[in-house]
Amino acid sequence: MKKYKPSFNKPSKKDNQDVRAKKHLGQHFLTDENIASKIADTLSFEGYDKVLEIGPGMGVLTKYLLEKDTEVHVIEIDTESVEYLESHYLHLRGRIHEKDFLKHDLGQIFRDEQFAIIGNFPYNISTQIVFKVLEMRDQIPEFSGMFQKEVAKRICEKEGNKTYGILSVLTQAFYEAEYLFTVPPSVFNPPPKVDSGVLRLKRKENFSLDCNEKLFFRVVKTAFNQRRKTLRNSLKTLNLPDNLREDAIFGLRPEQLSFQQFIELTQKIEPYAISAK
């Protein structure tokens, strides 16, 4: 495969000031080249030859992705950033998509091909990004990037902890989740008020669940919506028979169950939840 080389003019101080970080878009531009390079290196580029960067801003991460043996696409909602990328990163022409990632049909870019996702994600939409990745898990074998540290930790957390929740279970059911490293506020412009964390998700070899997947999502979300209650009480809305709710697993709280136990719970519930299929 052709190795893409970055073709851009070295930005001057004035050029860097042309793109203003916009609070309503949750923008915090990464300024540390070493960290940008480390994030680019988190992807293995195995089993796919395309990658989509979300929110590239002025391309501090993009330039390192362009050095990889892969076809790089970027999706950016900020017009100023798009104009900057178009003038500084010539190899991206035709692959800069001025769209809202959460609303755009990525099939228009990748059709049915496999691709990875990477980025320095805006904090205000980071969990929504993960949920969209889960919806498209058939096409996304790998995902990595930077979140607010608290969110990154929660995604990778294991059962038995207070931060373990819906996002933890749903993500870990389909992906191997690994927290990689912490990034301080000082390497951003403007600096956020909290630390950031970089994580990597690698899709499992067998990512089909041994249960009704639609019901699995419903059970997990319903359980954690009342996380202080036992499953016997939090899952009452599923109208399960009393004899089933006497099973020992229903005496546990949701944060005590691994994703595998949630699969087993869903299997137990499935015969009684026809309407959820």
UniProtKB/TrEMBL annotation:
Cross-referenced InterPro entries: KsgA/Erm, rRNA_Ade_diMease-like_C, rRNA_Ade_Mease_Trfase_CS, rRNA_Ade_methylase_Trfase_N, rRNA_adenine_dimethylase, SAM-dependent_MTases_sf
Residues that hold S-adenosyl-L-methionine according to the record: H28, L30, G55, E76, D100, N120
UniProt source species: Christiangramia aestuarii
Protein name: Ribosomal RNA small subunit methyltransferase A
Domain Ribosomal RNA adenine methylase transferase N-terminal: 35-205
EC number: 2.1.1.182
Main location: cytoplasm
SMART domains, per the entry: rADc (SM00650)
Function: Specifically dimethylates two adjacent adenosines (A1518 and A1519) in the loop of a conserved hairpin near the 3'-end of 16S rRNA in the 30S particle. May play a critical role in biogenesis of 30S subunits.
